[in-house]
Amino acid sequence: MDGSSDERLTERAQAALAAVQSGRMVESGAERLADGVHTEPRLHVRKTYELKLVCAGHGSAQLSFRPKGSGTPVKVPCDQSVVQQRISGGKRIHVDVDAAHGSKGVVAWEIDSI
Known about the structure:
The chain has 114 residues and is mainly β. Helices cover 14% and strands 54% of the residues.
């Protein structure tokens, strides 16, 4: 993909996230799917958060968490649909989003305090 394609896909993914805004944003970003998302958000004890992801492009991505049990692994389709998952603060978690083989596009994500 060229830069202008990435920019258009980023705009689409971020617009889809903005349409479902809830709570106070804690952390967000947009990455080329080939690079993936790899973050360790600072989440406060006894608070609930919502992780939202949108992939724009083609193929899919895989959302995973470390340590196991911190969240539910799920496939994220690159069709601009919003995937949401609640996560709890209090333990250090690592969030990863990796492209499935042959997938291309942009993934936008946001963690909101709810």
